[in-house]
Amino acid sequence: MESQTETHRKQKKWLRLLLFPLPLQGHVIPMLQLANLLYSKGFSITIIHTCFISSPKYPSKNPHFTFHSIPNGLSKSECSNADNLVSFISLLNANCAEPFRDCLVKLLSDVSDEPVAGLISDSTWKFTDSIAKSLQLPRFVLRTTNISSFLALAALPLLQEKGYLPKQESQEEKPVIELPPLKVKDIPVFKTQDQEGLHQTIAALVEQTKSCTGVIWNSFEELEHGSLTDFRYNFRVPIFPIGPLHKYFPVPSTSLLSQDQSAISWLNKQAPKSVIYVSFGSVASIEKSEFVEIAWGLANSEQPFLWVVRPGSVIGSEWLEPLPKGFMEEIKERGHVVKWAPQQEVLAHTAVGGFWTHSGWNSTLESFCEGVPMICHPCFGDQRVNARYVSDVWRIGVHLENKVDRFEIAKVVRKLLVEAEGHEIRDRILQFKKMADQSTQQQGSSYRSLESLVSQILSSQSQGKL
């Protein structure tokens, strides 16, 4: 009997999918992982991207994809201000709508011998909803956060009505009854002068979720069963939790930043499970005072550490200028500092015993999948929700909740790496690693969801011909 996959391959001959990632590392990586996954299922892939991420390495590392660049209309200074997320995304949405529509119209008219089966857009592109509808093109949405944090975002109008927002410092430890296990301080917030405008934009994006052809999640059923149940009840739209996306098969590096391989050479000299790996992602920035506390906290822990300090991530500094005098001499060979590291390779290394993370969803999933317990230090948005789930629900990490302090840092690092509580956390996360491994294997929950996604794409494309 012919398998479902083989039937799909025959049906999908010469079918093309258009993918449109947001030009930030945490969004580009899962979109390209999804592209490779759908290519393996028989679809042709076209990536529409803004000039912000134009790079020769994308076509060279992905020769099986077609790439189309559109202008973003941003000045050099506006591009360099990508760490102001709300402003940056707002500008992109204002500037890219018309170029995107022009590109889409051209692609739809140019591929009569290779029909377009649908569009997969990053959920943050607000204008793709109306453009896809006007062109009668099925539109799927890739959400690069998890389901739990999306439900928190969707609840912002209710939380405002209930008086949780705007946040008050005296209420930060108060539980959010409507969203257990969150506390008030965990409610997703973003830095902007126009909070009301931001909430309106988020509400519009949430509403658009209800009208798309389907929502693709980089998560899996066993991890977020409760949140998925809530989503299915409140949003009557097909959903496809097919993560962890990076677990299906190795794909070429999609990092927008140059990776320092000396991180691996240094790890090769360290004892098993002895190193704390520290990285706060590709966007977050910290104050100089925090940077100094982190430095001395790592030194005082007396544990080996691999520390990623992204150039420009310390406010007002180029790179390591704020390091305390004599710091490098103090740590000697016990610490290694790089500008960027090959994170998946680092987390898979036998020397790594813990991950001090900003709790971005990609990083959290990667830590899950390698069985590496976490120290959570969220900065903004969905990271706060992720950190609460890691520490209080899944209990596979420690939440660094108070003001950054060198003595607290040293204490938490030792707890995770050498104390009994850290060993208990490591045992628990190994169970989650097993669940993640099984989910993407044949007949696993994510594998089955992927098959359902393929069927939905084919069904939507067929209906579009009617």
UniProtKB/TrEMBL annotation:
- Protein's UniProt keywords contain Lipid biosynthesis: no
Matching entries from Gene3D superfamilies are given as: Glycogen Phosphorylase B
Which regions span the lipid bilayer? none
Key words of the record: Glycosyltransferase, Transferase
Gene Ontology molecular function: any one: quercetin 7-O-glucosyltransferase activity
| Glycosyltransferase recorded as keyword | yes
Question: What family does the entry list?
Answer: Belongs to the UDP-glycosyltransferase family.
Instruction: Provide the protein name.
Output: Glycosyltransferase
